[in-house]
Amino acid sequence: IGHSKEGYGLVWSPHQEGHLVSGSEDASLCLWDTNSISSSNTNTTGTQIHPVSTFRGHDAVIEDVDWHPRDPHMIGSAADDGTVRLWDVREKNASKAVHVIEAHKGSDVNCLSFNAVNEFLLASGSADHSVALWDMRQLKKRLHSLEGHNDQVYQVEWSPFNESILASCSADRRVSIWDLSRIGMEQTPEDAEDGPPELLFTHGGHTSKVSDFAWNTKDPWTVASVSEDNVLQVWNMAEEIYTNDQEGEENGDDDDDLLAEDDEEGKK
Question: Which residues contact 187 (CB under 8 A, 6 or more apart)?
Fold first, then answer.
């Protein structure tokens, strides 16, 4: 029923109760309606339902799926064929995506995330170590590349509180916080050594690959992250890092102190 191989991506619809989409190693997407479950189709071995629709078009493993927070009909998928694809769930058993984005040519695309506030903004993360930003009104060329990780990016997720804030985690054992409003800001040569101006903060508390993370939807700037060595850390940044009224830039020694403070919080 549904997929023929392992599943990797799963997302509930934020628009319609009981609907969810899954992505699989079999290169397909399935749309499910759990409302179809009734007492008449249950048995002692569990309940099984058939997908409402199956979407095919990827040529490799689908690593991640996301549902557009503003458009109830749009879903996105990221796959090892180097593409991000956008689909219309109203299309029954579609064999062709509405949009095919050559997001990271020659590299696996591990993740994607729609911006909850800006309906045209999309982010994707890849094995090529980069996070790509896309304007869905012009998908032939990426809007910007976020460069800072030195190993493949496993997950990206927009902040639920600020449309310009994005986080990413990587096999380089880091979780990076990016601020798009800082793109293009002038830097001193000393600051540039720590990364581009849009790299707001890096959490370096893990000692193994960071597999996933989640923003706290009730407490701004609080993040939980998990790594492959079975460690879960809950942490937040020092307030002076993200407050807009701070004058001047922190020097390198201060940044190290703040990072150490963050690491200690994460280990508690």
Answer: 196, 197
